[in-house]
Amino acid sequence: MAEREENIVLFPFMAQGHIIPFLALALHIEQSKNYAVTLVNTPLNIKKLRPSLPPNSSINLVEIPFSSSDYGLPPKAENTDTLPYHQVIQLVEAGISLKPSFKKLIENLTEQQGNPPLCIIADIFFGWTASIAKELNVFHAIFSGNSGFGLACYYSLWIHLPHRYVDSDEFSLPDFAEASSIHVSQLAKTIKEADGTDPWTIFHQKKNLPEWVKSDGILFNTVEEFDHVGLLYFRRKLGRPAWPIGPVLLSTKRQARAGKEGGISSELCLEWLNTKPLNSVLYVSFGSMNTISASQMMQLAMGLEASGKIFIWVVRPPIGFDLNSEFKANEWLPEGFEERIKGSKRGLLVHNWAPQVDILSHKSVSTFLSHCGWNSVLESLSHGVPIIGWPMAAEQFFNVKLLEEELGVCVELARGKSCEIRHEDIVEKIELVMNETKKGNEMRSRACEVVEMIKNAKKDEEGFKGCSVKALDDFFSAALSMRKKTKKEQDIVA
Ligand code: UDP
Question: pLDDT tens across 243-256, in order?
């Protein structure tokens, strides 16, 4: 291939849920455009990313210096997956101090390549990179691995903290009426506890979100057709383009696994699935870092068993235990549970990490019980798998709202990691979705329609470009036209 023109710099926040969609975007740009891609991160994250790249990849992984002890973080803590929840904000704040090093890095790249990068694509937590891009005359975009709808709710909540000013448990968002009513149980802990002076509010209200207006726009890993309302919010709010370019996803092979030990190989998992009837399996997983409480785990196990359905469940030690410690089925699950499901070949317990994309794309999988992180949602919807939602944190509650109220592909089972849940309710929801009920059939047919929307959005054929393909083209056209304009201005000055 001819030498790649132009350089695109990508800079995700140091968390697996952020790095995964950035890596997917880097690979997508590498495959679909003739641009060089530079992916920036701290040394340990870069080291972990390296094996996720295909052997012949031209993506340039570049380290930005970072020493966790400078920020009161434990040694080698460079990713949220090595931190207890209360210290995540320290890593978020440490990000801001990368400003001088990031500027230097862009200047060095400019010197090496004789041209500044065509654009900087940065994380939703790195709003500050927009000022640097402006200073250096580089086109800038934020890339959201979240849905437009979820991020709109999240943005509005942090800007306004509306729940602080109402007596009731339900309220609306002052600048996003389309989200209708929000319930306090849909607020992540950090937002619920925010009093205006806490570090998360200060970070978002003073240091991060106000910087977004300096950006040239936002890229979303989503599809216009089913996420229009959230995208409109940002177009209206920031007066900037919102480019929906998704779904951009990683294959199982490329999943950046954050050093997590896979509990089962893809081959074994697929072999097991091959023995199951079409559309018969429930897949249960709560993302890359969540686990549930011991009592929830017990009820879930009882519910799965009582439902009589075939299932794959990704298990981790419950809340309060080291996630990397041994899983004690005898203590945390009903007596004899593991032996019974193994004996009957009805269930597969996978420890810690499963080949999710392979599972969701298998024809025997019928339904996904998920925390509704946006990557999981996109992976599920791309394969037409309806969802039973159990949101746990961040904007997941609003993803469920979008999926249930707007798209009709999801029913919500529970909210949060501390809610009480009864196995009878779990059985009821599983039967509602997996059996031939009116609701279940409706969800399956809506899920098929969403698959078509996704296929259309990604279509790139002679004479027809889907809206996600067009959006990425529009984004690069905007970056190139800024490049031309800057060049013209420089020529005039010279
Ligand atoms: N994932 C996986 N195996 C697991 C758990 C998670 O491959 O056992 C992947 C999943 O396919 C998705 C990502 O990890 O791509 C999780 O991202 P998501 O946005 O759903 O949730 P988060 O982990 O950020 O909460």
Answer: 999 999 988 766 64
Residues 433 and 443 sit within 8 Å (Cβ to Cβ)? yes
What are 481's two structure tokens? Answer: 């036209």
Residue type, 192: K
The predicted model scores a pTM of: 0.95
- Helix or strand run (H / E) with residue 490: helix 467-493
- Cis check: omega of the bond before 355, within 30 degrees of 0: no
Per the rule left: phi > 0, alpha: psi between -120 and 50, beta: everything else, 265 is beta
Distance 375 CA to ligand 1 centre (A): 6
Strands 281-285 and 310-315: parallel
- 294 C-alpha to ligand 1 centroid (Å): 21
Q: Which tens digits make up the pLDDT trace of 431-489?
A: 999 999 999 999 999 999 999 999 999 999 999 999 999 999 999 999 999 988 887 88
Atom from ligand 1 closest to the CA of residue 356: 7
State the closest ligand 1 atom to the C-alpha of 372, by its place in the atom list counted from 1: 20
Provide the 10 A C-beta neighbour count for residue 480: 14
User: Could you write out the DSSP letters of every residue in 368-383?
Assistant: EEE---HHHHHHHHHT
**Nearest Cα to Cα of residue 429 among 402, 390, 459, 465:** 390
Any ligand 1 atom below 6 A from CB of 353 = yes
- The total of other beta-carbon atoms located within 10 Å of residue 55's CB is 4
What single DSSP character describes residue 275?
Answer: T
Q: What was the pLDDT predicted at 258?
A: 42
Q: Does the C-beta of 370 come closer than 6 Å to ligand 1?
A: no
DSSP code at position 261: P
User: What per-residue string of b and e applies to 7-16 under the rule 16 or more CB within 10 Å gives b?
Assistant: bbbbbbbbbb
Is the minimum distance from the CB of 23 to ligand 1 under 6 angstroms? no
Is 314 close to ligand 1, i.e. is its CB under 6 Å away? yes
DSSP string, 71-132: GTPPTT--SGGGS-GGGHHHHHHHHHTTHHHHHHHHHHHHHHHTS--SEEEEETT-TTHHHH
Element (H, E) at 281: strand 281-285
d(CA 223, CA 453): 8
Please state, in angstroms and rounded to a whole number, the distance separating the CA atoms of residues 353 and 263: 5
Residue 287 alpha carbon to ligand 1 centre in Å:
4
Q: What is the ipTM of this complex?
A: 1.00
Q: For residue 15, which atom of ligand 1 is closest to its CA?
A: 24
Q: Which atom of ligand 1 is nearest to the CA of 250?
A: 15
